[in-house]
Amino acid sequence: MSTAAALLAAGHGSRFVGNRHKPLALLRRRPLAAWAIDAAVNSGLQPVLLVVGSHSRNVARLAPPGVEVVDAPHWEMGIAHSVHALLDALEPRATVSAVCIGLADQPNVSAEAFTRLARAHDDGAELAVATYNGERGNPVLLGRSLWDEARRLKGDVGARALMAQHAPVEVDCTDTGSPRDVDTLDDLHALEVELEVELEVEEDQQ
Questions:
Q1: Is 118 exposed, middle or buried (0-12, 13-18, 19+ CB in 10 A)?
Q2: How confident is the model at residue 199 (pLDDT cuts 50, 70, 90)?
Q3: Which domains, and CATH codes, for the chain?
Q4: pTM of structure
Q5: pLDDT at site 157
Q6: CA distance 146 to 55
Q7: DSSP state, 73?
Q8: Nearby residues of 157 by Cβ (< 8 Å), 6 or more positions away
Q9: Residues 6+ apart with CB under 8 A from 104
Q10: What is the helix (H) or strand (E) element at residue 100, kind and residue range?
Q11: How many CB atoms sit inside 10 A of residue 135's CB?
């Protein structure tokens, strides 16, 4: 049995006002979503899926070889429908027992966060969530036993809504990165500055 990794990149990003669709906006000269895709790929989980909706063709082009693109035809109805499309794509694959779901606008979530949640599933968790300094973030792991329930979610409600009914296993990922969202152009600019500072510090230490 295996754990899949998935990134949701179907939304319109209505709060992001820029000259590019949010997943395609550049962060250190790379599309924003490419950072999150790298984390999913580098986790070693298989398969890796990218769920697209708005600007689907352009976002789909960010998927490197080996990453499967899933179209969410009802993406405008909210994140739950992106999750539906993802689970529909995974359902026939009997060897996939869980999926670890991240968001394409969280470039500082690391591959290790995906890996740690997969380990929690190996230890029996059917619902798990990454935590950072005690706060729940992303990714979220959803075991197959909860997929039918997840398909009943509606609107702008993701897999974390299941935590109101099922106690998740919390997996500390504080030392791996950050679940910080890029919702606005100001968020993107602030993150660009932070990354420049981190790079300068790393260069000074070498």
A1: buried
A2: low
A3: 2-205 (3.90.550.10)
A4: 0.89
A5: 83
A6: 30
A7: T
A8: 78, 79, 80
A9: 7, 8, 9, 23, 32, 33, 36, 37, 50, 59
A10: strand 96-103
A11: 10
* 97 Cα distance to chain centroid: 18
Q: Please identify which residue in the block is written with the tokens 């029996």.
A: 124
Look up residue 138 and give its DSSP letter. Answer: E
What contacts 84, CB < 8 A, 6 or more positions away? 72, 74, 150, 151, 153
| Residue pair 6/68 in contact by the 8 Å Cβ criterion | no
Q: Do 136 and 129 contact (CB within 8 A), yes or no? A: yes
Dig out the tokens for 160 from the structure: 């974390």
> Distance between CA atoms of 140 and 127, rounded to whole angstroms?
7
Distance CA 46, CA 97 (A): 11
Could you report the per-residue pLDDT of 103-150, keeping only the tens digit for each?
Answer: 999 999 999 999 999 999 999 999 999 999 999 999 999 999 999 999
- Between the CA of residue 123 and those of 95, 169, 197, what are the distances in Å? 17, 10, 38
Phi, psi angles (nearest 5°) of residue 136: -70, 140
Classify 71 as helix, strand or coil. Answer: strand
> Distance between alpha carbon 79 and the CA centroid of its chain, in Å?
12
Q: How many CB atoms within 10 Å of residue 114?
A: 32
Q: What share of the chain has pLDDT > 90, as a percent?
A: 65
> Alpha-carbon dihedral of residues 13, 86, 109, 21, nearest 10 degrees?
-20
Asked if omega into 168 is within 30° of 0 (cis), the reply is: no
